[in-house]
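Q: Got a minute? One more chain.
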Amino acid sequence: MKVYDGQAESESKPEQIKIGIAEYDVTRNGAVLTTSGLGSCIGVALHDETVPVSGLVHVMLPSADEAENGNPAKFADTGVETLIEELEDAGGDRSNMVAKIAGGSDMLDFSESGSGIGQRNAEQVQETLEEHGIPVVGADIGGDHGRSIKLKGSTGQLVVKSANKGSTEL
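A: Always. Here it is, folded:
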């Protein structure tokens, strides 16, 4: 994980940083953070406009309790907590942070309970954000289609590109 706090280049197009599955990153220089392949996974974007600082995490599974060990960014509970801490380390204040989330599809729902991994991921992300007092101000979750997202670090705007409904802005 790197925190980008250098001066923005004189070019009009900001730096683009790709976030992979079970990864996160934080920017202070207005870089654009992107991730793709959000099926049942959730992309969680946090932004504190007072600094400004933004971050994005791509989580795969609901809870770290379901695994013996591993990367905290892989799980909704620990991934959100890690991202909050990283934004605070970069100068953010959780009382000023807002969240936008996308993903959580049940593309291949084989569960008998009807509550697939995508729905459980979305519920855990929302629960963890609520525990930390961070409001969700935009969401594009559920359904049965994939998504890619782009977080504009300078504004906190989240652009969601869906397989079935084009692009929307949160």
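A: The chain has a mean pLDDT of 88.
Q: Perfect, thanks.
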